[in-house]
Amino acid sequence: MTMAARVAELDRIRQDVRHGLAAATEAQHAKGKLTARERIALLLDEGSFHEVEPLRRHRATGFGLEARKPYTDGVVTGWGTVHGRTVFVYAHDFRIFGGALGEAHAQKIHKIMDMAIAAGAPLVSLNDGAGARIQEGVTALAGYGGIFQRNTKASGVIPQISVMLGPCAGGAAYSPALTDFVFMVRETSQMFITGPDVVRAVTGEEISQNGLGGADVHAETSGVAHFAYDDEETCLAEVRYLLSLLPQNNREMPPTARGDDPADRRNDRLLDLVPVNGNRPYDMRAVIEEIVDDGEHMEVHERWATSVITTLARLDGQVVGIVASQPQRLAGVLDIHSSEKAARFVQLCDAFNIPLVTLVDVPGFLPGVDQEHGGIIRHGAKLLYAYCNATVPRISLILRKAYGGAYIVMDSQSIGADLTYAWPVNEIAVMGAEGAANVVFRRQIADADDPVTMRQQLVKEYQAELMHPYYAAERGLIDDVIDPAETRATLVNALAMLRTKHAVSPSRKHGNPPV
């Protein structure tokens, strides 16, 4: 056979590999789902994909497998670019063995993960598979073990993004849980350890797949999903946007993108946006949108643990991670879930050289038996540990109130914030004046002829002595009290100064954070 004939044969095989069985493609589309290659085409820059091992086949026998040996073995792997920067990707092909993982399938994923770590580039997994390939037994389970080990090895080294575009059950769900971000698509993607049938058999509870592990459940209730969207196209477009905010690896800085928003733009709108009365709620998102470049930010875990906001944005073109109290939800208190949410976000930003800006308006930790018994002490300590351990530039701004332990935990100067600012309505204290008066002046109030009047008088005295806006500044616990209208300019200038910050960490294998 001539070389030309061999090349023609190769072209035919490649065409078969690229297109797959028409009936299987139609079935995938009928479910409202794209194929693996269609998804990769949406994720990567046009024409940039380079496939790895497209001709791989499994070697398993038994249960009819020897008669079914399709190319790719149900997973498409390779690399391409997103906004011109290298990204590695693997995508389960549900048309082949339902995307189930076997030995060859796993080895392809292992290889692309190793390549991503070696090259120092992000890894995106497009998940749409039926779990371990039962016909291959324990070798399929070992394949998952290799993926988990590499997820852990890559953690904090390269960004890892999991995009759930179909079912993900059993042990397969642990790989996304080990990655930095999880995206889900409503109605078509589900994640659970045990499915509805097992739940029904063990507990007698009746529940659908989406009710047990759908996108909304994981975005609002469990916190497993960071983002949830209505369709695959929007989801993959948002993955591209997220990648534009992240560095390639932990040795690089996030990409800058200079725009037309002036660095010294005044924020006069903030004077009316935030009520002076600390008991009145407002939407912290509006504050963030007023401060950041062009009002754009990408909120992480938007619908879970909503008393705190965690979001990525730019200030004068520089990517920053913003942790902010949300007075519109539970008055902005810290509870078990919001502490966990903020702690992991702080760790993410610190791992990938993203400066942290903390906007504080916090009345304290949420009181209650459920919170105490649920471990608010250790969960709150996660956020404290994350901030204390972070070496990236850290700036905190107290908008109104900051009380008790929550003040300390929300990146106060005493735990290592590089710069701390406050607005001229700030109240920093052990607790609010009303509560403090009840404790400090309990006897005076009880013995007074007019307890109500006495209490009001003592509350005002406490506020005047210990809670006036300049009390912390006078003691060097904040660096300056600023005009709210100058917030953006102040943050931009501070970040510019801190851009070359270098912190030396103590020599250790790793810390032992609270769990």
UniProtKB/TrEMBL annotation:
Name the record gives this protein: Acyl-CoA carboxylase subunit beta
Domain of life: Bacteria
GO molecular function: propionyl-CoA carboxylase activity
GO cellular component: acetyl-CoA carboxylase complex
InterPro entries, A to Z: AccD/PCCB, AcCoA_carboxyl_beta, ClpP/crotonase-like_dom_sf, COA_CT_C, COA_CT_N
Boundaries of every CoA carboxyltransferase N-terminal domain copy: 3-258
SUPFAM superfamilies attached to this UniProt entry: ClpP/crotonase (SSF52096)
Membrane-spanning ranges: none
CoA carboxyltransferase C-terminal domain ranges (all copies): 262-510
Organism whose genome encodes this protein: Streptomyces kaniharaensis
